[in-house]
Design brief:
The protein has 311 residues and is mainly alpha-helical. The protein has helices at residues 11-17, 26-29, 31-35, 56-71, 73-88, 100-112, 115-147, 149-163, 167-178, 182-206, 210-218, 223-234, 236-260, 266-275, 279-310.
């Protein structure tokens, strides 16, 4: 037996005994060929999504619909219980608590006479005017107190004491000063809207990140420009929360204003219905106040979400 590659071996036999060389594959080393496919671990559109899975927009719509349906559970349960205790079992008499149908009929009656829309519109107008005035003053004074230690020392204690005064305590004094016109009512509502905005703005500006303030000053911002460009945007979430609280306070102070010194509005409707023994109209006014308060709060909530996305 001869060993390949030694003296005396057959060249043909040697060639057959050697392993064949693999030809050089140019395509395997071509960078363009390697880059033509997705890299390992790269997500490919359409992969990993089970067939029949809804698109993100459809999922969001379904989520919103589910939240709306869930939020309606408690109001519908309250309405059903109300109907059961009044119209079905008679547990409450018509004078104590009228049935939902009776309240609806009272609303239709007032609407046909044009009184319901007048009461609603004048109340909404008073709330918006008082809310705007009180919020503007609260924003300005809250900024001063929040940014100045001297102003905080001078004003914080006095304003804190005035904040504890009940709404009805202001009514006699406002009637003496401003009489029975719209000014007294709007002023009382403005007082109610002022304190939540003032408190939240002052507290938020005190706790703005000092690094943000220093960065703004490094870019040459001072005074009002620093407030509007750096400090107020940083305090935006707290400011909007204060506005929502102020709006709720405005509706509370509206009732206090209209109960005593008014001839129109939902507060007047409450008071007048009590004297006339119209419990159905009393409940109607309460329901309208709840609906209007929630509607205006929802509007402010939309503004809040847009502001937070912007800042």
């Amino acid at each position: 037996m001869t060993i390949p590659g030694t003296i005396g071996s057959d060249p043909v036999t040697d060639a057959r005994a050697r392993p064949a060389r693999t030809p050089f594959d140019v395509r395997a080393e071509d960078p363009s060929a390697r880059a033509s496919g997705p890299a390992p671990g790269t997500a490919v559109p359409g992969e990993g999504t089970p067939p029949g899975t809804p698109a993100p927009a459809a999922r969001r719509r379904r989520g919103r619909a589910a939240r709306v349906a869930l939020a309606a559970v408690v109001p519908l349960a309250v309405l059903a219980t109300w109907h059961l205790l009044t119209a079905v079992t008679g547990y409450f008499g018509p004078f104590e608590l009228p049935a939902p149908a009776a309240v609806w009929e009272a609303g239709v009656e007032l609407a046909q006479r044009g009184e319901l829309s007048a009461h609603v519109l004048i109340s909404v107008q008073r709330v918006l005017l008082g809310f705007a005035a009180g919020s503007a003053v609260g924003l300005a004074l809250g900024a001063v107190v929040g940014l100045s230690r001297l102003a905080d020392t001078l004003l914080a204690g006095t304003l804190g004491a005035l904040r504890a005064v009940p709404s009805l305590a202001w009514v006699p004094l406002l009637l003496i000063w401003l009489k029975f016109g719209e000014d007294s009512k709007v002023t009382l509502i403005a007082i109610g809207a002022f304190f939540p905005v003032y408190t939240t703005v002052a507290s938020a500006l005190r706790h703005v990140d000092p690094h943000l303030v220093e960065a703004g000053r490094a870019f040459g911002l001072r005074g009002a420009r620093l407030l509007l460009r750096v400090q107020l945007p940083a305090a935006t979430p707290a400011v909007v929360s204060g506005l929502r609280l102020a709006l709720a306070q405005s509706w509370l102070f509206l009732v206090a204003a209209e109960l005593i010194a008014s001839s129109m509005g939902l507060g007047f409707l409450l008071n007048d219905s009590q004297f006339n023994g119209r419990t159905d109209r009393i409940v109607l006014a309460i329901v309208l106040l709840a609906v209007l308060g929630k509607t205006t709060d929802a509007v402010v909530g939309v503004v809040e979400r847009r502001l937070l996305r912007r800042w």
